UniProtKB/TrEMBL annotation:
<dbReference type="GO" id="GO:0046475">
    <property type="term" value="P:glycerophospholipid catabolic process"/>
</dbReference>
<dbReference type="GO" id="GO:0016740">
    <property type="term" value="F:transferase activity"/>
</dbReference>
<keyword id="KW-0442">Lipid degradation</keyword>
<keyword id="KW-0443">Lipid metabolism</keyword>
<comment type="similarity">
    <text>Belongs to the lysophospholipase family.</text>
</comment>
<dbReference type="GO" id="GO:0005829">
    <property type="term" value="C:cytosol"/>
</dbReference>
<feature type="compositionally biased region" description="Basic and acidic residues">
    <location>
        <begin position="65"/>
        <end position="82"/>
    </location>
</feature>
<dbReference type="InterPro" id="IPR002642">
    <property type="entry name" value="LysoPLipase_cat_dom"/>
</dbReference>
<dbReference type="InterPro" id="IPR016035">
    <property type="entry name" value="Acyl_Trfase/lysoPLipase"/>
</dbReference>
<dbReference type="Pfam" id="PF01735">
    <property type="entry name" value="PLA2_B"/>
</dbReference>
<feature type="domain" description="PLA2c">
    <location>
        <begin position="130"/>
        <end position="733"/>
    </location>
</feature>
<feature type="region of interest" description="Disordered">
    <location>
        <begin position="63"/>
        <end position="95"/>
    </location>
</feature>
<dbReference type="GO" id="GO:0004623">
    <property type="term" value="F:phospholipase A2 activity"/>
</dbReference>
<feature type="region of interest" description="Disordered">
    <location>
        <begin position="711"/>
        <end position="735"/>
    </location>
</feature>
<feature type="region of interest" description="Disordered">
    <location>
        <begin position="349"/>
        <end position="377"/>
    </location>
</feature>
<feature type="compositionally biased region" description="Polar residues">
    <location>
        <begin position="83"/>
        <end position="95"/>
    </location>
</feature>
<feature type="compositionally biased region" description="Polar residues">
    <location>
        <begin position="711"/>
        <end position="720"/>
    </location>
</feature>
């Protein structure tokens, strides 16, 4: 039915659909009680004066007493207080309001009528979208992109004494010691999922890393779910300035609106070209042909545009096309010159039958169709002091056990190491047949990509049940009821009916008509037959992005894992590390925290409550795990930094505070500052010393190994000559 298709692809229809979603969210109390500002509707009397409702959003202010006003006027004559009374609106006021609403909707209609015209203009804008003249092909390889390989070498140069000398400064090395680029540890930083709690917490962690000099020693940064928001914002609107990003979050929080509420929708739509940024990506995706639009696509554009809307100048909110081009981050943020770590957003998809993948674990957000054995084990563990137990991993049948395939989204490529297929980031969203793209549309908006990486609402309902089980104490009535419900939902006769009606968004499958995996022993492997693929929140597999960071091709020496999950005070948090090791074939993973100097008490002489809290978590703020890669025997360190309460703010527990749950998207500035302070203090007061020791140990080990290798191949005289040469010798810089 062409007419029906035309209507469903029209901007007006998509806007109406978006408005209905926002109305539904608003109806069901989008703003939680803990984040609502007081609304006082009745008149009070204070020394003969009435309350003046100076309306600002949902805030109300109280007029001070006569004596207080007189005193303040003497001290600051410029300050004025206006006393108003609550009177019913007159007919003229009602008519005026009606005219304002009518004018607003007329302007909205004009904006909607311009969307298709603006999209056609994008198709012809070769300067902004040069990819409209390019074709894309699928790169079938497990190797890194050549530009990433060059970036790693350049980043090591930058960190060494050949560049900014960042490692020397961070470790406090002797003044005369020179750091050779080959001795620089390859450090990766990963942020967990956890909604806005993870987004704000990871921002504070990055800010602390920058202040301490650690950020300048990091090569990669990756995120899961909420941490993907942080990285996307950091590399776009914040221009890699963590302080600016924190100020932006505080400015957004002054508007107590849920990103999916009508208020947030109006805020975006009233901004300069806001309707274009809100509806344009949906129109282009709807017109692509083989895929449709779902609720999560609306969720993607609503949340991202509201978050990225600039608040620098009050009353002049705006969005920019450059903000939504993730591939352009490579040059705009200086990554091409190794000035910043290389960012990765992560997602997963359900692996096609017979394809490589990893199985879901008990700490994941989804375990649909899997036996509840692991979830029960996780639920019954309620201590963080457990030693991680190693489960036998097998390399014999990775395809039989496969369930999820991890996808990495960098400014260079979108692809999966499990599928061994990658396409340029600017080509994601195009249709592909047998490895070649069809059509040349502009790059898909970052909002749709972020929507897939943060699509936790699209997880199976059984995943929500498992997440609740992980956070409830065992033996309670609620936990027993949830266990019964969990078992019922997993029954095979109900498996097809019991699911989440909210589905992750579809995109054209770039591997359509391409072999699922290349193998010289099986040259005629079957092709992927589905033309569509569905990427989801990678927290459904593991709530840390270690699967991407630990790829053997990258050769990371250290992974710093910031974990803002809700279960960090339970045993499942440590099991997350073990699950990653099993999936990625990291053998003999063990807790070696005792080999390093543990954090020292900072508040032992303070109030009893602070000292008690610090004593409880002192040895949990940072834990060090060491494993061995099975394919080459190289060591890998995982430095685990959970988001725990500390004595800086002893009354705030990020895991249990009512406003700090993973599903709350409305925070006040005070709550954000509270989380900022807690997250940054965990790093600066407790974890940084251990991190510095691990980095030093890896640096010294790589340095000793390099010198031993040179000594064995060239002899002592030549080795001494090479280490005393100039910077251009290629073998100097180490003492």
């Amino acid at each position: 039915m062409p007419l029906l298709t035309t209507i469903r692809q029209s901007p007006a229809y998509l806007y109406l659909k978006t408005y209905c979603l926002c109305a539904l969210v608003t109806l069901f109390q989008a703003t939680p009680v803990s984040s609502r500002l007081p609304q006082i509707e009745e008149s009070l009397h204070l020394n003969g004066f009435r309350v003046a409702r100076a309306q600002l959003g949902q805030r109300s202010s109280v007029v001070k007493s006569r004596r207080e006003i007189s005193k303040e006027r003497r001290n600051a004559s410029s300050r004025e207080f206006k006393i108003t009374t609550q009177e019913p609106a007159t007919p003229s006021q009602s008519e005026s309001r009606a005219r304002v609403i009518l004018r607003r909707w007329l302007q909205r209609a004009v904006d909607l009528s311009q969307v298709k015209k603006q999209l056609r203009r994008d198709n012809e804008d070769r300067k902004t979208y040069p990819e409209t003249e390019w074709d894309a092909t699928v790169r079938r390889s497990s190797a890194l992109h050549p530009k990433e390989t060059a970036f790693i070498e350049l980043r090591q140069q930058k960190i060494s004494s050949h560049g900014a000398n960042s490692l020397h400064s961070f470790l406090g090395l002797p003044e005369g010691e020179k750091v050779d680029p080959r001795d620089v540890p390859l450090i990766a930083l990963g942020g967990s999922g956890g909604g806005y709690r993870a987004m704000y917490g990871f921002t504070a962690f990055i800010s602390g890393c920058k202040e301490l000099g650690l950020w300048d020693c990091i090569t990669w940064a990756a995120g899961v779910s909420g941490s993907c928001w942080t990285l996307a914002h950091y590399y776009t609107i914040a221009y890699h300035d963590a302080s600016d990003l924190a100020r932006h979050y505080l400015a957004v929080a002054k508007e107590p609106a849920h990103p999916l509420s009508i208020r947030a929708l109006n805020t975006v739509a009233r901004s300069s070209r806001g309707v274009y940024f809100l509806i344009g990506p949906l129109v282009r995706k709807a017109q692509s042909g083989i895929i449709g639009l779902g609720i999560m696509d609306l969720y993607a554009t609503l949340t991202t545009t509201y978050q990225l809307l600039s608040r620098e100048q009050p009353g002049r909110t705006r969005l920019s096309r450059a903000t939504f081009q993730f591939s352009k981050v490579w040059t705009r943020s200086g990554i091409e010159k190794a000035e910043e770590p290389m960012p990765f957003l992560t997602a997963v998809r359900k692996a096609p039958r017979g394809s490589r993948g990893v199985e879901p674990h008990e700490d994941s957000s989804a375990s649909k169709g899997e036996p509840p054995k692991r979830a029960l084990t996780q639920h019954q563990t309620n201590t963080l002091h457990m030693a991680p137990t190693h489960e036998d991993s097998s390399l014999d049948s990775p395809f039989a056990k496969g369930f999820f395939q991890w996808f990495e989204i960098s400014p260079l490529e979108v692809g999966s190491p499990d599928a061994q297929g990658y396409i340029p980031t600017w080509s994601w969203g195009r249709s592909f047949v047998s490895g070649r793209s069809v059509g040349r549309p502009p790059e898909q908006h970052l909002s749709l990509l972020l929507g897939q990486c943060t699509s936790a609402p699209a997880g199976p309902l059984t995943g929500y049940i498992s997440a609740l089980l992980a956070s409830l104490p065992k033996g309670t009535m609620m936990s027993r009821i949830l266990l019964l419900l969990n078992n019922f939902a997993r029954m095979k006769r109900w498996e097809g009916l019991w699911g989440n009606p909210i589905r992750a968004g579809h995109d054209p499958n770039p591997f359509y008509g391409v072999n699922t995996r290349s193998s010289p022993d099986n040259p005629t492997e079957k092709w992927e037959l589905q033309g569509r693929t569905r990427l989801m929140d990678s927290g459904m597999s593991n709530n840390l992005p270690n699967h991407i960071l630990a790829r053997p091709e990258r050769g990371a020496d250290i992974i710093i894992a910031f974990d803002a999950s809700s279960d960090v005070q339970k045993g499942s948090a440590i099991r997350r590390i073990q699950n990653f090791a099993d999936d990625c074939h990291i053998a003999d993973l063990e807790d070696v925290s005792a080999e390093f100097h543990l954090p020292q008490p900072r508040f032992s002489d303070s109030a009893e409550k602070k000292a008690e809290l610090e004593s409880k978590f002192l040895h949990q703020y940072v834990r060090v795990f060491r494993g061995r890669r099975e394919h080459n025997g190289r060591e890998l360190y995982v430095v685990y930094c959970p988001l725990l309460p500390n004595a800086v703010n002893p009354d705030f527990n990020p895991s249990t505070a009512s406003f700090s749950n993973s599903y709350n998207l409305v925070w006040t500035p005070e709550q954000i500052r509270m989380l900022f302070a807690t997250s940054e203090a965990n790093l600066t007061c407790y974890a940084i010393g251990t991190i510095r020791q691990v980095v030093r140990q890896v640096y010294l080990a790589k340095k000793a190994q390099r010198k031993a290798s040179i000594l064995s191949s060239t002899g002592p005289n030549e080795e001494q000559l090479s280490t005393s040469g100039g910077a251009g010798s290629g073998l100097s810089l180490s003492t």
